[in-house]
Predict the 3D structure of the following.
Amino acid sequence: MNNSKIVLGTWSWGAGFAGGDQVFGNNLGVEELKPVFDEAMASGLNLWDSAVVYGMGASENVLAAFTKACKREEVLISTKFTPQIADDTENPVADMLAGSLERFDTDYIDIYWIHNPADVERWTPMLADLMKSGKVKRVGVSNHNLAQIKRAEEILSKDGVHVSAVQNHFSLLYRSSEKAGILDYCKENGIDFWAYMVLEQGALSGKYDTSHPLPAGSQRGETYNPLLPQIERLVAVMRTVGDKYGITPAQVALAWAIAKGTTPIIGVTKPAQVQDAVRAMQVVLTADEVKMLEDAAESTGVDTRGSWENPMI
């Protein structure tokens, strides 16, 4: 479907409940983000990830403002059904998808996800019909553990549909999907693994440290600022590895995720971040470098599991 080694995330696009202003301390709309979209498309990065819950449609609306101006086949749209905001209707998955289709002004979504495993038995079967209708080209599951992924595959395969991708939090500081065997399962079954929060919302970008904390009052600031003394030690090792290739710690984090066989999702809010991603895709870390980074990450003793996440192990 896509040759890109990187997915572009739009969680921090737009404002509102669970949106860019509350989570990231941003307030970005169409005007600020148009150059970012244009830079990505010009660089051959055309796979975009959103969700209805990001600003309750705000992120989708901003992204749609740009995708509508493209030929539909030139852009790949990924969005999600989030159980926690489902209406009490006969088929909430189809209903939430209908809203997304309307916002994007399209008759299909390239990849549609169940955002979390609130009720695998209830929601998963509804994906099969959407695939058969052609409104969804591929289906994925996000924030699911290995047992839940296998159960989703069992449910879908009865209808001749398969889980084609898994999207979980995966970073140097949070490797539970690897430790739980999910990466191996995906490799063995030809399932793409999309790694989100590879930069831990900027904490691994190299831009922040104890003397330059993340934005005060933002959710990410509250989460990561207390951990910066430990994280700084890892970032120092990332900087050492990066210096060899002339890249930043943020690019090292992406190169590491690609070396692990995953497709990292990078949240982009500036054209320079797109250029950084392109450069990171060209770097191939050695096995020794990967191990050095992972050892440094383990030694921080930091656990960055999100409040919305169930343990994978």
Summary: The beta strands are 7-9, 47-49, 76-81, 109-114, 136-142, 163-169, 192-196, 263-267.
